[in-house]
Amino acid sequence: MKFSKQHSLKEIAAIIDCKYVGDDDFPVQGINEIHVVTPGDIVFVDHPKYYDKALNSAATIVLINKEVECPEGKALLISDDPFRDFNKLTRHFRPFSPLTSAVAETAKIGEGTIVQPNAVIGNNVRIGKNCLIHANVTIGDNCILGDNVIIHSGTVLGGDAFYYKKRPDGFDKLLSGGRVVVKDNVEIGSNCSIDRGVSGDTTIGEGSKLDNLIQIGHDTIIGKNCLLASQIGIAGAVVVEDDVTIWGQVGIRSDVTIAKGTVLMAQCGVSKDTEPNTTYWGTPFGEVRTKLKEYAAIKKLPEIVKKIK
């Protein structure tokens, strides 16, 4: 999430009431998660396991819960609870704004686009030309749709990220200030749920087609000309490259990359990166021909056991 204008380190520290290391006027341009940070961004870290990753990331401001040596060219925000203070920043720079009508006054809808009854279009949404938004679709604040996009009934774009921190008294939610960005010529089926990024974008690439009942987690990127069948569950921060086909009931864990041209057969359980132009099957998943040979071998086990006896 980039701010509407540049702020100083001193100004940001005042918002969250914390100490800082760096020049008062050190430039701060946004907040982001570690996998999408750029210079000028704040990244937060609250576990020693990830200190080095955050301090050495592209982010130039690190919100951290320990006083450490500040890397050259960067600044630190010292907080007793970076998770809480990251939420404070999200709430400050992207506060919730309730709607007063089904289509927000600040939404911009392109020429030739049809919005069917009972659709809800949030604040600052941008929809391109010649789109069709069916009844009972919800498009959350700040989402962006390109041209020639079709969204079928019951689908929600821009729900909150499923992201929680375990506290002694329960789960603390990480607020979502990001967007969903849908590129040109995309079609999304009925009753899909595509979560907004925590601070960045969840993106559906140009020409991709999604069936009904698909869940896509926060900050995931779907490439161009991908085909996704029904009942797929994709976790947060997944990268699906171009020309990928994913069949029904596939589950994909967070932080993996599905390489260009991959085919995932129905009910795959995907736990790691794939190789380009390769077909996979099974749980745990593997290259399809190898998995078929394994299943054929398993069928012979009863006969082998009888011979041993």
The whole-number mean of residue pLDDT values reads: 96
DSSP strand count:
34
What is the CATH topology of the largest domain? UDP N-Acetylglucosamine Acyltransferase, domain 1
General shape: globular
Report the sheet-strand fraction.
25-35%
Please state the oligomeric state of the protein chains shown.
single chain
Secondary structure layout:
Elements lengths: L1 E7 H8 L2 E3 L5 E5 L9 E5 L5 H5 L5 E4 L10 E4 L3 H12 L14 E2 L4 E2 L4 E2 L4 E2 L4 E2 L4 E2 L4 E2 L4 E2 L4 E4 L4 E4 L2 E4 L5 E4 L4 E2 L4 E3 L5 E4 L4 E2 L4 E2 L4 E2 L4 E2 L4 E2 L4 E2 L4 E2 L4 E2 L4 E2 L4 E2 L4 E2 L8 E3 L4 E2 H12 L1 H8 L1
Parallel strand pairs: 3-4, 4-5, 5-6, 7-10, 8-11, 9-12, 10-13, 11-14, 12-15, 13-18, 14-19, 15-20, 18-21, 19-22, 20-23, 21-24, 22-25, 23-26, 24-27, 25-28, 26-29, 27-30, 28-31, 29-32, 31-33
Antiparallel strand pairs: 1-3, 2-6, 16-17, 33-34
Briefly, what is this?
The protein folds into two domains: about 1-95, MurE/MurF, N-terminal domain (Udp-n-acetylmuramoylalanyl-d-glutamate--2,6- Diaminopimelate Ligase, Chain: A, domain 1), CATH 3.40.1390.10; about 110-290, Hexapeptide repeat proteins (UDP N-Acetylglucosamine Acyltransferase, domain 1, 3 Solenoid). It is about 15% helix and about 30% strand. The protein contains five helices and 34 strands.
Describe this structure in words.
- By secondary structure, the protein is an alpha/beta fold.
- The chain has five helices and 34 strands.
- The chain has a ten-stranded mixed sheet.
- Strand 33 (279-281) and strand 34 form a beta hairpin.
